[in-house]
Structures are given as C-alpha cells and as structure tokens.
Amino acid sequence: LAAVERPVALLRAGETTEVHVDIGQDGRSEQAVPVFLDVEGVTIAENEVVLPAGGMIRQDFPLTLPESGDLGTTVRMRPDRYPLDDSMHAVLAVSEQVPVLMLRGIGQLPGEGDPLLFLLAALDPENSGAGRFAPRVDLASGFDPAPLAGTPVVVMVNPDQLGAARRAGLTDYIEGGGTVLLFAGDPRVQRYLDDSLLPAWGLPGMGTFRATAETRDRLEFLVPEHPAFAVFDAEARATLTEATVYNFFRLPDDFGTPLLAWADGGAAVVEAPVGEGRVILCSFDPSATSGDLVYSPMFLPFIQRLTGYLATAGWGRFAREFAVGDR
Q1: Quick one: 60 exposed, middle or buried, by C-beta within 10 A (0-12, 13-18, 19+)?
Q2: CB 315 within 8 Å of CB 1
C-alpha cells in the first residue's frame, strides 16, 4: 500500500463518498490481491485488485458514512513477509456542522454593499443555523484569539488594525495548522496588509488596485483540478467566469500558488502556506458594489468549496492522519 487519499470535503453521516487507495508491487508479473476497507474495526468492503507488473494502480472504495465523529479507517492487504506496508490508516472527520469564525474588517456600506451579507448567505443559505457551516461573526479589531484553537477555518474581510496581540494570536493559529480565507478588495486596507499583516505571515504585498466600473474584469480558473474546484464541470466553471468584478487587486506573481487569475492578467485568488497552515487570498470585495459576482449562481458553491476545503484538508494540529513518531 503506497497511499490512502481521504476525501477533501465536508462529510456527514449517511452520505456516500470515496476513499482512494494507491497499491503497487515490484514483481515481474501481474498479481491479484484482495484489499479490505475497515471502518471502526468493521470490514465494510473487499475488492480484488489486479496489480500490474512492477507498477501502481489506484483503487476506489465507495463508502457510506455510518455515523458522526472521528471514524478510524484502515485499508489493508493480507500480511506478507514485509508487513509494514500491508496496511494504512486514516481518520474521517464526520460532523454535522463546521464552525467558521467570520471577522469583519474596515467599515462596510449597509445592505448589499456589505460583503458579509453575501458570505453569510453562502455559508448559511437558509439562515437557520442548521446547515453545513456554523458561522459566527466578530470584529477583526476586537475578537478573542483564544477560541481559534477549536476553529478549523477563519474568514476575514478587509481586515484593518487587528492590534499586536490579535495579529500574533492569528499568526500562531495559522502557523500551527489553522487556515484563513481572506477577502481584500478595499484600498483603505492596503497599507495595513502590506506593512503589517502579510509580512507577519511571510507573504508579499497586495500589488496594484483597480477601482472603476470601466475596468471590470473576469475570473479565469488556472487549477481546475484543485480539490476545492474538482467537482465543478466545464459548464459550472464557465458560469463563474461570466461574472464581472471591479474594486480588486492584481496580486504579484510571487504571491503563493495562483488558483484563479484575472482575464486581463494578474493573480486573483492564491493559496499560500504559512507555517503548517494555509491562507487563501481572494483579491476582491464579495459585495454588490464590486460587480455582479455575488449574484452568480456559482458564488454560493464557490464560497462553500473554498471554505470546506480549508476546513477539512487538515494541516498541523488540525491534521487527520498521523505516522508513528508524530506528535
């Protein structure tokens, strides 16, 4: 067994997902071997896999999640002379809700000019508090860093003047494996981001700002196979890229891994490692005063997929898989 790839997605009891397993051998002829999938000590699937001579193959195990909680999962083969690679383990985090801390930054316009209006609608569409996400709103300039330890993802919008203690607490959280989805599309926060917050995370500045309706631009997918976007087919991606945006930054080329770009050039959405954690920066305002992206039928799944990816991928202290010797 070479690798077990668990789903990077929000998982709920009763839903069906897939566990992907890479298996190989160095023999000179094909070999059929049984491979078993155990969940919480119970064997729920057995597949016979034909291994190519001297090669690797991927086997997919459909899995209906039996219950909520952290489910111990084992993929195993029959023991041979080298038992260390005959089994691999993972943890599937199955939960009814994922807590999300949403931090409001610089003063926003009321109503549809408020980015949090659309982000909250995307994460809790029915405003019921019973959806996949459990968002909680606080001020970026006044939140308590202590609860971050139990928060898998933080969403920030145009943060300004966090203060030294909150900036340090947020930085420690990310470096230890936490994640941040950051939206920045207001030029008033550029100095703070360039001079204080982004340098604390080892990231470059925001680049150039465009702020008129005459300079509208569109998003383009650069990495459609990214785990956050892999579920989007070509039609879905095209729908998102039909929307127009203004009030945005063109990020520099050295700002992490570009995931989406502006059609006229420059990075628009980037992912960057910070310590053991991750930051995804969207260089635009998710509000009605910055274009029609927030009215796109793809805005909701776009926000949910980015948030779900960060909340469940698992890095640092939020990791779900461990090897012998890890702490």
Answers
A1: exposed
A2: no
